[in-house]
Amino acid sequence: MAHETDFIDLYRKLRLEPGCTLDDFKQAYRRHVALWHPDRRRGSRADTLAAARLQRLTVQYAAAMDFHRRHGRLPGAPIGARSAGPRVEAERDEASTATPLRASMPPSARPRAHMAMRWWLAGAVLGIGALALWMWPDDEPVETESVAEPVAMVEHDRPAARFIALGMTPADVAAIEGEPTRRGADRWEYGPSWVRFEGGAVTDWYSSPLRNLRTASTRAH
Hints:
By secondary structure, the protein is α+β, with helices and mostly antiparallel strands. It has two domains: 2-134, no CATH class; 148-206, no CATH class. The chain has helices spanning 7-14, 22-35, 44-71, 86-104, 110-134, 148-157, 170-177, and strands at residues 182-183, 187-190, 193-198, 201-206. The longest helix is centred in the first third of the chain and has 28 residues, at 44-71. It is elongated and about 65 Å long. The chain crosses the membrane at residues 119-136. Keywords: Chaperone, Membrane, Transmembrane, Transmembrane helix.
């Protein structure tokens, strides 16, 4: 499964480089799953799109972890590079111990060991999928981010006919859209949507169907 997976697409989604640590990789995955939480969806089409993307991300993540277990590094990392953390050392020790054991197995026992490993990998993939489904609530969406309450408060005070436009200041954007989920020096993020500033003025934006911005178009003209 790993050799057929588009790991470049996976790193792009997680905004990581192939040389990142295992802890950074896992944290980025968890953030991305939370980003596509159902409380961010609006409408049946966005609901279907989010579910499909989350399913593809889960499969790509499982393939990357399978690659890490077999090679001791994440896909795309330099050969010989080690992921930070004691867990990697433990996995390397297990691999060094397992190698002589496998070599000592009689030929008749090796196919059974290989089949057991395949079942173990299948169970790991199913476990990750079950975790994603467990995080998907059946009832009303529940806000999970600390910035959700201020955004909701600003929502009531938004002008009914006001939209984000080129040249606006960060204060104007905050008055219309509320506090961002992530604030950078030149870019504010609202989930999968974002607004870019240059010289203290709006120069570009992207309004995702998963979290619409109050703009007249999906992208700035």
